[in-house]
Amino acid sequence: MTHVTIRDVAMRDGLQIEVPIPLDAKLALLEAIVATGVTEVEATAFVSPTKVPALADAPDLAAELARYPGVAFSALVASPNGAKRAVAAGIDSIEYVVAASDGFSRANVGRGTAEAVGLIPEIVSIAADGGATVEIAVATVWDCPFDGPTPVDRVRSVVDAAVAAGVDRIMVADTIGTAVPARVTTVLDRIRPLIGDLPLSCHFHNTRGAGLASAYAAVEAGVTRLDSSAGGLGGCPFAPGATGNIATEDLVYLLRDSGIDVDVDVDRAIEAARVARRVVGHELPSALLAAGDRTR
Amino acid sequence: MTHVTIRDVAMRDGLQIEVPIPLDAKLALLEAIVATGVTEVEATAFVSPTKVPALADAPDLAAELARYPGVAFSALVASPNGAKRAVAAGIDSIEYVVAASDGFSRANVGRGTAEAVGLIPEIVSIAADGGATVEIAVATVWDCPFDGPTPVDRVRSVVDAAVAAGVDRIMVADTIGTAVPARVTTVLDRIRPLIGDLPLSCHFHNTRGAGLASAYAAVEAGVTRLDSSAGGLGGCPFAPGATGNIATEDLVYLLRDSGIDVDVDVDRAIEAARVARRVVGHELPSALLAAGDRTR
């Protein structure tokens, strides 16, 4: 039986565009997410508190993570300075985001792809000094809101540089939720030969309804690590009203009923989605939050 | 290039649980749906006007269909009497619904599966006399809200009887939106050997988020006919707040970007979804209605 490891990203990718919520509310959400059985959680990001005020409490949140020794926590960074702050806060798994498209990279971090790639060795060195691992999170892998479709060679070139720099894991992200199964397979086929035995994960948004279909296509292509978000929390600032990350509970439902082994319990994931809805104070796009599990 | 024929079912499966809307509003929706380029439309149902008041105007609507000679219209029936009314109204493509689970069949039409199956020859005869074709729409193929998972042998037995009675097409429906790709493949593998060259279509709901993934799994398994609904109009009375049919515009987006040929234009499908939202007066679950097409 295939096992798929799910990383819940509601705490970071979910909350980042929300109105900032108090640390206590975040910890309630974290508690509910951990209770689902999930083994990996993206806890926060060490990025500009001005640009992302919702995650300005990253060091405070990081200080609470030791309460859950069974869970592997990661934090996203966008610069060497962020990596230093993350390591100083005790984070031992860093995600460094590099957009494969220049337009998004400039809008997101103020530098183009090549410049962002050029910082990978420094990030790896900072992490190594702090005893942390590094995942390269490749953003806008399929499409860019500014540049249109991303040539797969741009993605390959980021992955190549990351592998050469000795990173520990690769993640490919459909940042604006435009991928579909056939395009997922195409990209995965082109990058798998580059990464050897490094773990590869995929991160999909459900913005155009195809997020779960894309995630399943990735699993069929051999990917065993997927990001998802409690309640589907998380949107995209470029698509107002659009749904966000694929919902953890919907993903777990699909995988479980497809005979794939997952650590997350559907009912507890629905409960975490309820907590997510409560702490952000608005409806979430999760299907199971509305419909519930099927009768078994 | 694979071609997939889409049938838009918003006019019937979409509107059936809505508050009844005036014929003029329905015709505006029909006009918008036809303008998408779709070649097949489920126009209405000839069922009890007491049980389904939203479709009580079926004969009036049927009288308008001749305005669109390029579109193949079908209507759903649940009894020989309904079939007679449909034929009398000029419908030349009848869908007779038979639930594979007894619980849903009894709740839906007041008779169990075997009894509903027993009426197939009479329906075929009525259709033949009126120059109409017959599709058997098998409901609750994966799960029943009352009986739980549907044994695939129950589905096979309905399909066997339909083929023996000389029907023209088979459709399998995930009535309550619980299917996932692996379960879709399992059922299709078991029924394909029974139907020879008869056209086979699939009908999915997105109630648990997996509708598009299931539809794509069906296409990968060789199915070239899919039902979907403008705007994702249509819910399920057993899952309040749950999303309805898979949205035509979301399906077309996924298929188009997967390199599959479809007759429906994405932009016009989004426009039809807007009209659907306007005529029913509430939000719809469509992803593209919120997010729009991707930049190309």
TrEMBL record, chains A, B:
GO terms for biological process: ketone body biosynthetic process; L-leucine catabolic process. It holds the Pfam family HMGL-like. It comes from the Bacteria. One of its GO terms (molecular function) is metal ion binding. Residues 4-270 form the Pyruvate carboxyltransferase domain. InterPro entries: Aldolase_TIM, HMGL, PYR_CT. Keywords: Lyase, Metal-binding. NCBIfam families: PRK05692.1. Belongs to the HMG-CoA lyase family. This is Hydroxymethylglutaryl-CoA lyase. It comes from Gordonia crocea.
